[in-house]
Design goal:
The protein has helices spanning 24-37, 44-56, 67-72, 82-95, 114-131; strands at 96-98, 105-107. With 145 residues, it is mainly alpha-helical.
């Protein structure tokens, strides 16, 4: 107001941000939920729960998810709780494979994949130490933790 000398004109200047639910991290969540809903062999109660959560995101559009999509997400202090959700989405992205039936998905178990399990365990330990206030050394795998 001072820069524009609005006090002498008895005027006020106001700026605000338009907040929307349709942001990249919510789009990734909705797309992942949609893929999970179409996953073969899913428990019916879990399926119904996923459908309910998917419907709650009716204002959010879906996005074509790639590995690069996860790197584009910018989280800050107010949206830090998305970190775990997006890590789970990325894990599902890596392990949901297209089925022979169009539009359907099959979950590939990552429990026998030594590389994925090692990365998951390392990430868990690093985040545990970070939360407890311990010194965290850089990752040997070069992947972010």
């Amino acid at each position: 107001m001072l820069k524009r000398n609005l006090l002498t004109k008895v005027q006020a200047y106001c700026s605000y941000d338009e907040l929307s639910h349709d942001v990249l991290h919510n789009r990734i969540l909705k797309t992942t939920l949609a893929r999970l809903i179409r996953t073969e062999g899913l428990d019916s109660r879990l399926h119904d729960n996923l459908v309910e959560h998917h419907q709650r995101l009716h204002d959010v559009s879906e996005v074509e998810v790639t590995k690069g999509t996860f790197r584009k997400v910018q989280l800050h202090r107010n949206s830090g709780f998305y970190f775990l959700l997006l890590a789970v989405c990325e894990l599902l992205f890596d392990n949901l494979l297209p089925s022979e039936r169009p539009g359907r998905w099959v979950f590939r178990s990552f429990l026998q994949d030594d590389r994925q399990m090692a990365y998951l365990f390392e990430s868990f330990i690093r985040n545990f130490y970070r939360r407890e206030g311990c010194v965290v050394l850089p990752s040997k795998t070069g992947q972010p933790t």
